[in-house]
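Quick board copy: two proteins, each given as sequence then tokens.
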Amino acid sequence: MKIGLTSYAYAWAIGVPGFPEPESPMSASALLRRAASLGLEVVQLCDNLPLLALDSPARRALAAEAAALRLELELGGRGLTPQNLDDHLVLARDLGARLLRFVIDGPGNYHPSLDEAAAIIRPRLTALEEAGLTLAIENHDRFRAVELAACVRSLAHPRVGICLDTANSLGAGEDFSTVFAALGPLAVNLHVKDVLVRRLPHQLGFSVNGCAAGRGVVALALPAALASLAAGTRCRSVLLESWPEPGPDLAETCARDDAWAAEGAAWIKPLLHQ
């Protein structure tokens, strides 16, 4: 498995909708250079850094830059509609990506059922196979892990698997150990986000906040999960993300993005290279 990051590791530097924008938002090129400087191997360019509008020369240039930096590119889309999936299949081909992660839900209250999602994917299985591309469906708030596992297994194809996120399913009431038990055998890609769970001062409840990988509750279960994934053959990449809260100003928040990426990379590398 290769170690890298997704564009959500630098969400504030790229720009978070509804919040003040950076004066100079981080570009895909800048993200690649930062990943290379951290000694990483993979960058997954997700929907917060959309690339569909790039023309052919720009796509070729981005692919060439990644190759020059010895980085493998992956893609990430959101909103599993037929057209959006088709557009991302073309983009993956143009960039030489071998993995395409998708969040099923999309803008405008687009919330298809898992049966509808499978019906969109099924006619494109041959295209995935011909392109040598793996489609990774990410666990998110709306579906339980066992439901996602059943959906992927219903497709019964080696080019379809799970992008297993370590924290997203908290929104569905499931911790990482529960999610890993259901989705680990289907994982082709791992998103590592860590969180701190703290009891509130009044003792009536908890807060859940992001932290650098290695500092929170996910870190307790992750070493065993990584060993399990490494023993298999399906999981291609382990990618850092983070959930930093906004600080007093955007510059400080972006600096925390960067510090957490460096800290997380330093923490996770030894776990994979034991």
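And the next:
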Amino acid sequence: MPPKARYTRDEIIEIALELVSKKGTEALNARNLAAALGTSTRPVFTAFKNMNELITEVKAAAMKKFDSYAEIDEKKSPAFKNVGMQMILFAAEQPKLFQMLFMSENKELMSFNDLFDHLGKTSGLCIEYIQRDYGLDNRQAMLLFRSMWLYTFSIGGLIARGVCRYNKEEVSEMLSIEFKAVIGLILSGKAFDKLEEFQENMSPEEFQKHFK
């Protein structure tokens, strides 16, 4: 029989998450985790097959924490902007976890659709809020979400890396300006003109390759 672990999987994940939140992903190794646990490395490798399995679980726990920031009062308008504000707050309060989730090298490059799925329940909530509050169809809502996500997480990345510092009022103003610009373009009916022009001049196979 394998030795009984002193710590449960959940306890090890929680301590590992705390380690990352303080010192970053690069600090998450067997030696540092054992020191944080106050034991040898044995409990870690009793509970997990290897460090890769543990890191996967820690990322999942970090994503749950990220999702918790988006749990706003959906009746408080504007809900979509409030989620964006919370995501930037996550970057400010949990910079190392933000870096782990969104600023680490990904060896398997993803399309935006893959990234959308990777974002968990937050992305689905945003699409729901956009369609409900602004009367956009799914294609329009996805374009608005994608544009605002790129802008919001650019701000978050600058904050998480300690490059720039913004107060709440500055963030709110920046998000409002970008939002008005993007939704104005969408409502003008011109947002997809360039995309459709590309599609007309490409074979279906080329279009899927470039815009999947």
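Board note added afterward: Residues 44 and 96 are 22 Å apart (CA to CA).
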